[in-house]
Amino acid sequence: MIDIKTPPAHAHASFTDPAAAVARLQALHAEATGFLLAEFAECQRAGRPAGRVRAYYPEVRLTVTSFDRIDSRLSFGHVAGPGTYATTVTRPDLFRNYLVQQLDLLIRNHGVAVSIGPSETPIPLHFAVAGGAAVTVPQDGVLDFSLRDVFDVPDLATTNDDIVNGDRLTNPDGSLPLAPFTAQRVDYSLARLSHYTATDPQHFQNHVLFTNYQFYVDEFETRARASLADPASGYTAFVGPGNQIITTPDAEMPGLAKMPQMPAYHLKRPDGQGISLVNIGVGPSNAKTATDHIAVLRPHAWLMVGHCAGLRNSQSLGDFVLAHAYLREDHVLDADLPVWVPIPALAEIQIALEDAVEEVTQLQGYELKRIMRTGTVATIDNRNWELRDQSGPVARLSQSRAIALDMESATIAANGFRFRVPYGTLLCVSDKPLHGELKLPGMATDFYRTQVGRHLEIGMRAMERLREMPVERIHSRKLRSFYETAFL
Predict the structure, then answer these.
(1) Nearest one of 300, 335, 303, 306 to 320, comparing CA atoms
(2) Whether the model pTM is above 0.90
(3) Which range marks the domain in which residue 137 is found?
């Protein structure tokens, strides 16, 4: 039998105080990751140990024995019926407010205690290191022994979206899933977020804007600095790639020598209710990658504010498009969310966006139709679709009644639907390829100069309106399936 060295064993303990329960999760996770880091440092100093080294994620367990109905107006915070429910937990320091909120609802709604203790799921060494320790795991072949012979390493067989996709209804031990993501899945995405955005996950705010042009980033920084100059704004810091933080409007923020693939910028509030902007670039693959990972942070909303091709001759460059339906020809989510699944417009998001357009443009009612259309947005995976035979694509676009086309919006909305994150889209017409107005350099420069600032301001105002909504209102039941986890 192989000897396995582990931290001291701990029995599960019951809690009716959610803050105390989360404190216990933090203590267990800190002990487990600290143990792994200390043992890894010793391996580097003294060589391979005699046996294996292992530590376990903490977990939350809940047992409900009654079919008593609870207040189901809330879309989360309760389980469907009797049974034992469980989830592994990582980084409880990062998710403290979220965990306290979710556990508080469960304890109050069902009148039972939650059980906190070690799970049977090992923590991969790579994820223990990714939590912020000043140590890196060397590549295979650097050490004089195989790392996986001693430590647990990431296992993609157990790091997946089975729960949110509805493909897993029970955990391996027979318990029912309590949260949409397992600890390994969360850890995987936290590491990917740092890689792709060059900012640490703790800087992300609860309201996320996605864009596909650098011009929006420049405008976001300008508006962020103005917010820092206004004590009444509630914003206290601005964070850029490389985790560069400024707290005053005139502080310097040098650019990185090498920018990440999808740089992120964060206008922060102490309560996490600020706004993050991610420049995902062009294409549905990037859109899926970004949202796959940001979803584990459980944001309250994400919106796409980018450019699109206007498909109607009645549109003008600079007009806005508020998506109320999506034609998905992006294909990157076909295996996870079939194309026959409708992606509905969410009333709370739509109203916030339309109100923000009215506020910024000072147009209302019938006059608003001069600059904004509401309709179907088509998302494709071929940037140069105009160069192919247009008869097929144009016929489909016409049949769908699409009014705009881009390469990201439907992907972001579909992943929001899949991950139960409220979503929306407000695009700005930058070209009209079906009507001879192509996006050329001279036209683009003038367009960007006049439209980007107003468009971004609308997106930020919409997020601020959503921030004022009660969490139970924006996280409505329309995104929940037949078999849902209690955690949001």
Answers:
(1) 306
(2) yes
(3) 4-193
